[in-house]
């Protein structure tokens, strides 16, 4: 099995490449990150240093045969999406269409799209299931939803199997989310900032569990799947776990709640368990401990 991974040098991409290699797959990565900034990608991985928007990607890859594409490359900063919507549209929506087209030209039969639970918006009925009406309320979430629609449309048009994976709040070695921010700040003996009262809940999924889901999706029927734990954990509890494992008693600073934050969120993962044969391995406590150990090493 030869798998093409876009964004393979990134946070989720790196762990996905490792999971693919463990399965015995050959891996080719498309990533614009320069060689000196790629971290620890194994030498067995072929890396094409390129942007997914480049017009000549097919010419560079047409001599190879791929069984699947895992599309992880996208614009990931919420602030960029709000401040520069044209860049968001180009890198996320146009980039996804470019990769779907490339998959079709290369005769790739399976396409995995990395989506996000942000497409749901603020739902009151919990846990959130895949069949609810989408109501994104940020520019980034709107572009993600649009890319989902294009993925489903073109895959059905061209006869590709597809998996749309809606990741919950991903954390772990190399990440940038709230758990990783707490670890970074405590590592520097800084007081972390918690927006609101800290009672808001999230569904935290470890990056290695996400990577395993990406690999499991290569053998699944077409569909949309939440990649989540189906467990809600409040931010105060998360901070207490991090601080306890560090053995520090630094009190966080509470700031005004952000308008875009939801009060409660967690996501049903039964479809992923049934159709992907996947379930999360890490509890949030175990995942935090593993991530802190990684930072210390």
From TrEMBL:
<protein>
    <submittedName>
        <fullName>NAD-dependent epimerase/dehydratase family protein</fullName>
    </submittedName>
</protein>
<dbReference type="InterPro" id="IPR036291">
    <property type="entry name" value="NAD(P)-bd_dom_sf"/>
</dbReference>
<dbReference type="InterPro" id="IPR001509">
    <property type="entry name" value="Epimerase_deHydtase"/>
</dbReference>
<dbReference type="Pfam" id="PF01370">
    <property type="entry name" value="Epimerase"/>
</dbReference>
<dbReference type="InterPro" id="IPR050177">
    <property type="entry name" value="Lipid_A_modif_metabolic_enz"/>
</dbReference>
<feature type="domain" description="NAD-dependent epimerase/dehydratase">
    <location>
        <begin position="3"/>
        <end position="227"/>
    </location>
</feature>
